[in-house]
Amino acid sequence: MQTSAxxxxxxxxxxxxxxxxLFNWIDLVSQHAKKIKDxxxxxxxxxxxxxxx
Length: 53
Known about the structure:
Shape: flat
Number of helices: 3
């Protein structure tokens, strides 16, 4: 939450806003978690969304 939308956009090479950056981050983490064999059974997106709100 402390990272600016601009910095986030530059680092990840995606367009975002301060309102959308948390959702974008959750999506990115979820996508990368699918590549981890031992985490495939977890719904990372749901877990992070629940924790964020």
